[in-house]
Amino acid sequence: MKAIIARDFAPLDQLVYGDWPEPEAKGNTVVIEAEAIGVNYPDGLLVQGLYQMKPPLPFVPGMEVAGRVIAVGPGVKSVKIGDRVAALSTHGSYAERVGAAEPFVMPLPADMPATEACALLAGYGTSHYALKQRGVLREGETLCVLGAAGATGIAAIQIGKSLGARVIGVASSEEKRRIAAEAGADIALGYDNLKEALKEVTGGKGVDVGFDPVGGETFDVLARSMAWSGRLLVIGFASGTIPQFPVNLALVKGFSVVGVFWGAFTAKEPRVYADNMKELVGWYLSGKVRPVIEGTYPLADAAAVLKRVLGRGSSGKLILKP
User: Fold this and answer.
1) Which residues of 41-68 are buried (b: 16+ CB within 10 A; e: fewer)?
2) For residues 167 and 154, is the Cβ–Cβ distance under 8 A?
3) CA-CA distances (angstroms) from residue 81 to 22, 25, 30, 230, 262?
4) 133, 10: one domain
5) Do both 45 and 135 map to the same domain?
6) Is residue 2 pLDDT above 80, yes or no?
7) Fewer CB within 10 A of the terminal residue: the chain, N end or C end?
8) CB atoms near residue 166 (< 10 Å)
9) HSE, side-chain direction, 13 A CA sphere, residue 125
10) Nearest-angstrom CA–CA distance, 306 and 301
11) Does the structure show a pLDDT above 80 at 197?
């Protein structure tokens, strides 16, 4: 079968579209014929050796796939051949056929497109875990979402509204702010003079929950805009800069800085992860959340698509198709 292969930890240009061994249906493995493959920021970091974990070389990147089950291992009980499913893994999904462990395989509603199923996994899964378990976002609180037009940011806006929050979306251009507003943000702001703008729109109270997948200087601005008893969620560092936090600020302003590592959460708390996904699918079916799919691209173009994601040039979810 064809797949995207990383032969070494190297720049994205060195990814190879070539032949790769077929996955085998052993143990609790479910083999899926891919219809859609999600592209995520961590995929690009993994390829370059910049992520928190490093798989053995060579490897196939990709953590999301949706499609039809074509084989199951002898230990699989919850799905069968022919079922439509979405699946999550640390890597291996940039391929025509993908093997995934049964606990991370989710049956799909009949009318859910494979593209939107992929978007619900890492992007919405991260935002849901961040806001529900880590930020404990409550009805009536103010949520500020940085990177609000990205796939994870759009998810955070929609989930924040589903939880009853007032949502401020922050994005770098007028077009991206329009996307954030269409996703449900009550207020859409730019990064210029952000501290003053947040002070004004919160009436000087500050932000109850900050959602930051960007890092860099904007993290510092958000940290200085937190309300008493606020929760500042560290999602990632799309700016390329990991900020240094002055811990005295948390003491003086009385807020918490909370790390969000969704990949570790899915491995350490699989039952909670499964419950979260059930809730997200329910919200999807009721119309509370709706992924924004910016575009679909051939699997062979994975390197170029990853460059767009790492360069923060996309709005919404990008999908690969074999």
Assistant:
1) bbbbbbbbeebeeeeeeebbbbbbbbbe
2) no
3) 17, 11, 9, 47, 29
4) no
5) no
6) yes
7) N
8) 18
9) 29
10) 9
11) yes
Number of domains within the chain = 2
CB 165 within 8 A of CB 137: yes
Query: Beta-carbon neighbour count of residue 303 at 10 Å?
Result: 17
Distance CA 178, CA 169 (A): 10
What's the pLDDT at 65?
98
Q: Are residues 64 and 185 in the same domain?
A: no
Q: Does the structure show a pLDDT above 90 at 21?
A: yes
In the DSSP assignment, the letter for residue 300 is: G
Q: Looking at the predicted structure, is the pLDDT value of residue 313 above 90?
A: no
Q: Which among 57, 59, 120, 58 is positioned nearest to 93, based on CA atoms?
A: 59
Rounded distance between C-alpha atoms, residue 135 and residue 210, angstroms? 9
Phi, psi dihedrals of residue 148, rounded to the nearest 5°: -70, -15
d(CA 307, CA 75): 39
Residue 321 burial class via C-beta count within 10 angstroms: exposed 0-12, middle 13-18, buried 19 and up: middle
Residues 11 and 71 in one domain: yes
Digit-coded pLDDT (tens) for 40-77? 989 999 999 988 889 999 999 999 999 999 999 999 99
Are both 101 and 132 inside the same structural domain? no
Asked if the model's pLDDT at residue 312 lies above 80, the reply is: no
In angstroms, the first-to-last Cα distance of the chain is 10
Q: How much of the chain exceeds pLDDT 90, in percent?
A: 87
Mean pLDDT for the stretch of residues 95-120: 94
CATH number reported for the structural domain that contains residue 248 in this entry: 3.40.50.720
User: Do 150 and 234 belong together in one domain?
Assistant: yes
Q: 0.85 cut: is pTM over it? A: yes
Please give the residue range of the domain that contains residue 235. 122-263
| Domain harbouring 20, CATH code | 3.90.180.10
Report pLDDT for 239. Answer: 85
